[in-house]
Amino acid sequence: MRACYKTNVFNTDSLCSGGVVLAKALEKQAILLLVVQALYGFSSALSGTFVPVYLWKSSGSYMIIGWFTFAQYALGGLTFWLAGKWVKEHNKMHSLRAGIALSGIFYCVVLLLGEGAKDWAVLLGLLSGIAMGLFWLAFNVVYFEVTDPDTRNRYNGWAGLLGSAAGIVAPWLSGFIITSMQGERGYRVIFMLSLAIFGLGVVLSFWLKKRHGEGRYEWTLGLRQLKEKGNPWRRLFPAIAAQGVREGVFMFLVGLTVYIATRNESKLGLYSLITSLVALISFGAAGKWMGKLRLIWSMLAGVLMIGVVIVPLFWGVSYSTLLVFGIGTALFLPLYMIPMTTKVFDVIGRNQESAAHREEYIVLREMALTTGRLIGLTAYLIVIPNNHSPKAITWLMLAVGLVPIAGWWWMRSFLQQGDTRRQPAADR
């Protein structure tokens, strides 16, 4: 039976891929949510791409960057769990705005610390983790409320498209500014720009409707789901964790590797521009055609290819081989990410009772991602002190880059053709 809990803001009869039709197909609240997300993504891409580079340039230490990221992920996951009560029982828009505001404060603190930021890397990671946790918890709940099983593939395609568009302009602009202003001054300018854009995001968020929670937050609901025999989350949790293992390393190491290979921020910006342009096209195409593909095989192709594209780095970690890797990843990642995200939220909304606990299930999803990210980071922190040669880093990337294959294995029953919105029979 299809999910009976829906908050329809899409005109599903008139959806198409054109930007003009998008404006007609979505209600104002959904468009505004996409705008706020795009601003958050643009600001994060503007400076977030270069934070690991900034820390590495001042410290020369792979470990400092690893511990910064570990702290960021760990407290981000903890914030999801703790703030779940706030979002469940009160106005979730306060959490969204607080997350945006704290993201701005993070860059303000980095500005004040300057090159001394490396000495406070772990605490900065904690602050960044709290900010991201508050924002993405509230955002994911609102995202669930404005989509349904019929529209999530397309919404995720547009969200990926907008994120890619931000990734095209923002890192290239940052790299140009940093190179033109020769270092420290350039970093200060882009951090100030990020602060201003986060401020604009907070202002626009006040036009989003107040969304008060219903019911009481159940702290241990996620744990009970994992203990229950036959529960779909017993397969979803490890599948999502497999996604997190890859993300935990790739989200910071790729950009850092590009910079170390080139020693030029503008080339890192150009790299992000090229790969994000490819991702924009591939996410747009995937969002349009995903519903016509056999998800079980298209997702398998995606997880295999995002592993295969790492192989050219064994020929040498250079700008050209990194571009081959980046373009290949941008082409095939949507085949993996769109169904992965869509199916998880379909399970959350499979019936009215499940949808009523959407906050707890979104927290459970984040716990799985956090678990995977910390596993990936732990592998990084074990490998790097012993050997941080390009070959060792490539082997590490290949190892964690192949983990999503296990995620596909756990997701198979959710991807069967003709059963895209129903809970697998084995789990009923």
TrEMBL record:
Its main location: membrane. It comes from the Bacteria. It is a multi-pass membrane protein. GO terms for cellular component: plasma membrane. The chain crosses the membrane at residues 31-56, 62-83, 95-114, 120-143, 155-177, 189-208, 236-262, 268-286, 295-315, 321-341, 362-386, 392-411. One of its GO terms (molecular function) is transmembrane transporter activity. This is MFS transporter. The keyword Membrane applies. It holds the Pfam family MFS_1. InterPro entries: MFS, MFS_trans_sf, Sugar_transport-like. PANTHER family: INTEGRAL MEMBRANE TRANSPORT PROTEIN-RELATED, MAJOR FACILITATOR SUPERFAMILY (MFS) PROFILE DOMAIN-CONTAINING PROTEIN. Keywords: Membrane, Transmembrane, Transmembrane helix. It is found in: Cell membrane. The lineage of its organism: Bacteria, Bacillati, Bacillota, Bacilli, Bacillales. It comes from Paenibacillus pinisoli. The keyword Transmembrane applies.
